[in-house]
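#lab-general

N.A. 3:47 PM
ok so I finally got the sequence cleaned up, no stray characters, all 292 residues accounted for. can someone with queue access submit it? mine expired

B.Y. 3:52 PM
send it over

N.A. 3:53 PM
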Amino acid sequence: MSGNGTPLLEIRNVSKYFGSVIALEDVSAFVRAGEVTCLLGDNGAGKSTLIKVLSGVHKPTKGNYFFDGVEQSFNSPRDALEMGIATVYQDLAMIPLMSVWRNFFLGSEPTKGWGPFKSYDSEFAKKTTKEEMAKMGIDIRDPDQTVGTLSGGERQSVAIARAVYFGAKVLILDEPTAALGVKQAGVVLKYILQARNRGIGVIFITHNPHHAYPVADHFVILRRGLVYGDYTKAELPLEQLVQMMAGGADLEALQHELEQAAREGGAEAESLAETAQAIESELDELDELGDE
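B.Y. 4:20 PM
back already:
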């Protein structure tokens, strides 16, 4: 475990089965207040299922879920949200043709007046949106502009600021940098640090070690539904994280298989030999990275 103090959110030996399909097996992870825990894994590693378990969409088949030291069992995502566990998915749950302030308060609209005279308090919504975005270091020039006019990084920042405003103690981010360019990904990473510095426990799900390493305090690496590695930042250099994510051992096994097939001949022997050589070059690059 990293740092000091009791984890804000923790799962112990969690498994999730869908009939005979094992999506997660004996997974343990945690996040503390004011820290970033990064869940890394390739496609099919179990990241999406784990997100749904953490956010209350799925109940674990086995294992224990603790929040603030108390064991929990959520019946729906609303239960998790009321506890202070907010999830920002890749699609962000935003309406592109609506303004920033309307999206910010979507589903939790502030009102003024009473009875038949109750109405949407748009003045409060606009003012609050601008103030909350400023707290995250984001300058929204005009809260009336539509979300569709914002960049990918700016949309992520709206979703993060919204979750923080509505009382998130734990913020789960599902691949927030996946569809972004280098510059916009950097913007989102800055907002993750802003959330961490405000005392929020952040769970950052990604498959990109270069996005994870600058902001994470703790790494949990998933592979085929199992925990492949659990490290603090001090225990895991970036080059080792890259090598683990690249699957160096798997690539080496594939290279040997292709070389064997090429030696056996056949119409595709030359193509197989070229592929094996390309994989060997990639392994050499990983070795060089590990030696730096």
